Structure formats: structure tokens, C-alpha cells
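anyone seen this seq b4? input:
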Amino acid sequence: MEFLHKSTFSKKPALSIILLDWTVRESFHTLEYLNRQRIARSSYEIIWIEFYSRRAPRIKEMMDRARALGLPPPVDTWIVMDTPKSEYYHKHRMYNMGILNSSGRITVILDSDAIVRPTFVETVIDEFEKNADLVLHFEQIRNFDTAFYPFNFPSVREITGQGCVNAVSGVPSGFDTAARSLKEDWNLWHVYNYGACLCARRDDMILIGGADEHVDYLGHVCGPYEMTARLVNAGFADKLHSTHFLYHVWHPNQGGDNNYSGPNNGKGMSLTAMELPKTGRILPLTENAEIKKLRLAATDESASEGASTLKEARPAHV
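predicted toks r here
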């Protein structure tokens, strides 16, 4: 593993955004959108995790350009895991790498080809100021028109127009009548894209053991909704944001075609994750060793202070 870049902060950012690659990304537009947020750039950090050994030339070009212009780096932490090509990619291992190397109070796991509005970061921070016990998701509006490939920075109006497959007049289909919480209706994760973006407090992710590194989650399936289910089992409130959405346009292999997938329902949902609402399980089947150390340290400290539930076991300083 190599850190190609690691920023230092005079004050910890409020939010850390984790983006993944396994030498598949052709376009790095998500970094462009995330560096054009309306909120101060110092209030959030961007973490890019590469599973294999590619040092993406496009990211280096962006970093060099920002340095020459005296701008903040477009990626604050750039990690190349240097995993041998003989190993199949495991998203959950990358999630945990991002969590371990994040410094924000809130952690965001985001599709690394998502299109976000200039108010995305601001919206996430505002939601957690209203409710610290939150597990937050954003629905992703998708367009299958191949006219946007190679990526050409289409407008939201274009994305929600011809070729849009899951929205009407810019609003996700069914949003006017659907529930907003998986705790209220677990069937929602078959309807909306809970794999596009997960936002939760870093300490809460650690207290449930981080992302599950079990072999069932190898390859294209699963995603961050596996952690969502365990956070809900632990008593946290989940929310699908009702007015702010993400966007995505067509590119080759967007559905993980010909990628290995663990046990699933044939529609991209992990059967192992889908058992979580029934079992009520909170901890992973296979826990990352470094996450476990942090979890045990936090819970041991809180137990000595009389905490009796997971939520009470949160570090008092956060």
C-alpha cells in the first residue's frame, strides 16, 4: 500500500468522502463536482482508494494543476492498495481503508462516478446537525442515454430528460407516496439505490465493526447498504433524503456485467445482507482487524463509564 498524497488539516474537517476505484474508472468527474461545492473546501476531505496498482494519470494531472494554481488538492488522501491482480476486488475492504484513514466526524461513502449538486456537502452536514443519530442516503436519478458517454458534463435538466429511467419531472418515481425509512419498510432497498451513497458518523461505523469483509461480499455485490442494515439494527435512524438527489449517466459496464458477484437475488442485492433485518445482527461476519481494535477501545472506555447500549457507547468527545 502507498499513500500518494496525504493532506494535513489545521482543523479537522466536518466530513470525509470516500471514493473507490479498482482500475475501472474512465472519467473522474465526481472529483470535479466535489471540488466545486458551495461550502468552504476546508470543511470536508476527499479520499480516493485504488484497490490495485493504478496511479490514475488523470488524478495526477488534476493534482498538478491545482498545485500550480495555488488551489487545494482535489484529493486530500490518495491511497493505492497495490493488491495483486490475482485477487478479486472487494469494495468492503476499500470502505474500511477509507474509514480508517478518514478524519471527519461524518463519513460519506459515495459512488465514484456520481454527479452531485454544489450543495451536496452542505446538505449532509445540515442533516447531521439536526440529528446526530442519523444514517443518511440519497436516491440516484439515472439516465441510460448513451449520448452522455464519454462523459460530457450534462446539465441536471438533460439528465432528467430523454433517457431518464427512474424519475418524473426531476423527482424519483414514487417519492410522493413512498416511505422514507428502511426501518419503516425494508422493501425500499429493492426500489431505491441504497448503494449510491451512505452517510453516517465515523464513530458509529466503527462501533458496528465497519464494513463486513466476508467473502459473500466479494466483487460487484454488495455495497454500503450492508452497513446501513446493521446500523438500523443497532438502533440508529435511517433517512432517504426527500429533496436532494444524486445523478448518474450511462457508461460501459455500469451494471457490473461479467463481474463476479457473491450470493444475490439476481437484481444486484446481496442475499447475505438481505438477511440482516431478520437476524438483527449488528457486527460483521468478518471484521477488519484494525476496525476491531478501534471498536474494542471505544466500547471498553464507554463500558467503564456505565454505558449499556451501543448508542451509549459512543465516545463522549464527539
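The chain is about 25% helix and 15% strand. The first helix runs from residue 29 to 34. kinda curious what u guys think
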